[in-house]
Amino acid sequence: MFSQQNSISIKSKLDTEKDELKIQQEIVFHNSSDSTLTKVYLHNWANSYRDRKTPLSKRFIKDFRKDLYFAKPHELGSSTIKSLYVDFENVYFKELEKQADILEIHLDKPLNPNSKITISVTYIVKIPNARFTKYGETETGYLLRNWYLTPAIYDNGWQLMSNLNLDDLYEKGTDFKIEIDVPKDLIVESNLYQYNTKKENTNNYYLVGKNKTDVIISVQKTKQLKTYTTNTVTVHTDIFSKELEDSLTTSILNRELLFIQKYLGKYPHLEIYIDKATQGKNPIFGLNQLPNFLRPFSDTFRWDITMFKALTKRYIENTILLNKRKDYWLIDGIQNYLMIEYVEKFYPEVKLLGNASDYWLLKSFNISNLDFNDKYPFVYQFTARKFLDQALSTPADSLSNFNRKIGSKYKSGLGFRFLKGYLGDSILNQTIQEFYQHNQLKIITSNDFNKLLSSKTSKNLDWFFDDFVKTNKKIDHKIERIKKEKDSISVTIKNKRNITTPLAIYAIKDKEIKLKKWVADVDSTKTVKFIKGDYDTFVLNYENLYPELNTLNNWRKVDKKFLNKPVKFSFFKDISSPNYNQIFYQPGLNYNFYNGLILGLKLHNKPLIKRNFEFKVSPYYATKSNSVVGSFSLLYNQFFEKTKIYKIAYGLAGGTSDYAPNLSYKSLVPYVDIVFKRKTLRDISSESLRAKLIHIDKEIAPNAIKTDQDNYSVLSLSYNYSNPDIIKEFRYSFSTEFAKKFSKASLDLRFRTLTTTDTQLDFRFFAGVFFNNKTEGDYFSFGLDRSNDYLFQLNYLGRSESSGFFSQQHIITEGGFKSLLPTRFANQFMVSNNSSIGLWRWIELYNDVAFLKNKNQPLYFAYENGIRFNFVHEIFEIYFPLYSNNGWEISQNAYPEKIRFSLSADIKSIYNFFKRGFL
């Protein structure tokens, strides 16, 4: 019986002028399954950089990245097959439809179980620019990953996956023999053993490795790697700190490897390779992103934790061969569990904010008291409270970017910590080590881990593998009541959610744990008895051993006082405290032309992790008008899990400010928002319904008579849809308004697209019509160049100005015109179209047309064009009119007064712009 090990032999030559690898490859493929195969598939990930139609390019578009989509031809990569033989015979092969990076080979003869074939391929790999995935042509050479053809795995069907920049190619352990010729001024480094032969014009490298996966090759002019010889394995890496001496670095690596070996067992290879590019794609968020001038963590800690994460990732992924697109949670869980354990053992004193916790400005904040490991439950709550978390069984390519990079990794790590607390560290750690040692370089699944762990304990673990892993059900228990008896204390625990898991309850005195007990099967309520002792507080999940939706209701004092949680005022935003009802205060700054600089205070109850009920009160002093202005808001978010509705927000808002010199207005707005769920969390579209009743009461000038334009109420109903795709953005809003003397409806539809040459085309269509209109004047009319904004929902700096700088502020609404034409309003209907085309970078040519109809007036046709400087779309833009109904605008007097600008100071809009594709 021959070995079932696949093998790959490659002869290649690097052409640096064309950035190409000329390759002759031989693959010995073994059918180790029980099925007879008529086809064989090869992953050809080098071809995923070929054009904008590949899954990789489409994935980038969903991530709001267009660099590959609009890359120049010399930046792209490809894999061109010149010939392909099976057992030295011609065969039919093709690329899969819509998956250019997978080859399908039709076998002339069926491949029986325990049989093998030899696939011979000649092909040319055009190396892409490394800016797409960090692999490819770099500024100093080449870093090659997933550059060769490799057989797909057959395991209950073919496991096919395209390159999606997830670095999760599913490979069997393979024996490699690679020859590569490079120009004589270049050096090759890799994660295989290598031998170098210098020739007249080239350097020939011979690379070998047994039972390897994921061959990475670096080709540079200078040596990039440092080698550290430890007591267990030799580490080759380009991740090193100039601040740390080699002796200290080696000592840290020894400690890390001994720690990993204690939990996982012996590494099956003699050497381990860790490259900076791979590590950079899996950073420690909150640590690696800090600029160098901010150093709240010591150089030793930064390097140690960064290297430990990269080392554990390689240690595990080079050995445990599973489908990382489906079962990523198992590897992430073990890795993050080891991270938690490592920090807990060697850095228990390190805080989440590092040394910054001692800064005078931060030391009073609750967040400064969090330990470094507290980031795991903190981040989980951040996503779970917004219902943006996903089941750990969700395929990696269906996770939101936040969950893929952070959220799901942290939840899986907490899952293993949960198991450790409930089962005991001996059972969990023994299972992890046995699983690692007995399954090295074998094709396995997470179900194998489930079976092994379940065999080690008599406790039922269905709640973990069926609910915690396969659903996004959320854990939330509270202490319902405490009853003191003669010799004991009864604690009643309530399960507030739809998942039944074990929970940990603690008896605490002065932050010291006096008693700890695990309680199982709390499906609704359960009463647990404790003997009276020297403790005054009961707490659930005191050590944050498992992720919980809300931990604020986990605390209960034995002797409950009338005011169990006193009110505490805290500066700025902070994490919630279980001991206080917190009110946050922070300085507020605003501006408008009539009030001038507006200074004041914001009082609110919104911590860093949002809560369902929120309130905000903002009293301000206006320096120019010498008046008190401000606003308030009350909001309750009701989230839904089993319907198409994401949440319903019930709110009441109001405020007062000046709308003209020495004239103020008051508003009161009750509203209801219905926000629908996205199809998936990778879908960036949004859909909502809004109903609001706006009450406006305006102050009038002395001796003026109050009219219907000064005190009014409007019922507004609207439907809003947005799909802010980076290539084809589409949004529309349909709204109706009903008031005492008018009713109207309008449609605002916007479409923005980028052509194949990266030219932006922007189209907007607006249509508005009055059903009835008994008002006088144009206060409630549709505006051609500027909305009257009688609902006070647009951020005008000088809303009543008809001349001067503030009158030139432009917000794209209603007619959307930039020029001031003879007819500026419509009291019957208006139809307009605004369009623009990109000329160069952010310079565009705009063209607008509109039809306006007023009572007893003929239909008015409006037109204009000009130059648009679109610096940041709808946030910062400048318009220079050229030609309109007025004639040549540029040749008329006072042209600078005709220039319009858009400037958004709305923090929420700016935040939404930059978070696209991440949350």
User: Biggest β-sheet: count, sense, barrel?
Assistant: 18 strands, mixed
| Estimated structural class | alpha+beta
**Ranges with pLDDT <50 over ≥5 residues?**
none
Beta-strand percentage range: 35-45%
The number of distinct helices, counting runs of at least 4 residues, comes to: 11
The rounded Rg comes to 33 Å
Average pLDDT figure:
93
Globular, elongated, flat, extended or rod-shaped: what is the shape?
globular
Distance between the termini: 53 Å
Helicity, as a percent range: 10-25%
Task: Count all strands and give the number.
Answer: 48
Please, could you describe this protein's structure?
Helix 4 (299-317) packs antiparallel against helix 5 (328-346) and helix 7 (401-423) packs across helix 8 (425-438). The chain is built from 11 helices and 48 strands. The mean pLDDT is 93. The chain is globular. A hairpin with a 2-residue loop joins strand 43 and strand 44. The protein has an 18-stranded mixed sheet that branches. The chain has an 8-stranded mixed sheet with strand order 5-4-8-2-1-14-17-16, with no helix packed on it. Helix content is 15%, strand content 40%. The protein has 919 residues and is an alpha+beta fold.
